[in-house]
Amino acid sequence: MTSAERDLQPLDPERDPVKWEAMVGSIMTAAQPELERRAVIRSPMVVLSEWFRPAVAATAAVAMVAASAVLFIGELPGDESAGPGIVAEGIGIPNTVADWLDTGHPDALDELVFGMEGEVQ
C-alpha cells in the first residue's frame, strides 16, 4: 500500500475540532458499559493474594502429616536405607573419598590421591 491509498485526514483532530470532540464523545458513550464492567473486575494479583493464606495453611498441614509419619512410623524392619556408600557410588564419588567423608579422617593421603585419579588396586 502506498500513502496515496490511505486517507487519514478525517482522523486529524486539528482539521475540525468540533467534529473530533463529537466523535470522541460518541466513542466514550458507547464504551461506558464496558468500562464500568471492567472497573468492577478484580485484579489477578488480588485474586492470587486471597489464595496465599489457604495455600500456606495447606502446606503446613502436609508438612505436619509428613513429619508425624516420619516420627511415628520410623524405619520399617528389613528396610535397607541408602547409606553414604550407596549414595557416593550413585553420584560417582570414589570409595576412598566416600570413606573419608564418612569417618572424617583420611586413611592415607596416597589413597585419597589414587581415589581421585582412579580406584586403588
Blueprint of the fold:
Elements (H helix, E strand, L loop, with lengths): L16 H24 L3 H7 L1 H22 L10 H8 L3 H9 L5 H9 L4
Helix pairs in contact: 4-5, 5-6
Description:
The N and C termini lie far apart (80 Å). Helices cover 65% and strands 0% of the residues. The longest helix has 24 residues, at 17-40. It folds into three domains: 10-41; 43-74; 84-117, no CATH class. With 121 residues, it is mainly α. Helix 4 (84-91) packs across helix 5 and helix 5 (95-103) crosses helix 6.
Summarize the model shown.
By secondary structure, the chain is mostly helical. The protein folds into three domains: about 10-40; about 45-75; about 85-115, no CATH class. The protein has six helices and no strands.
Provide keyphrases for this structure.
elongated, 121 residues, mainly alpha, single chain
User: What structural class is derived from the secondary structure elements?
Assistant: mainly alpha
**Overall pLDDT score:** 79
Which series of helices and strands comes N to C? HHHHHH
**Radius of gyration computed on alpha carbons:** 37 Å
Major beta-sheet overview:
none
Straight-line distance between termini:
80 Å
So how many helices?
6
Count of the domains: 3
General form: elongated
What percentage of residues falls in helices of 4 or more residues?
55-70%
Poorly predicted regions are none
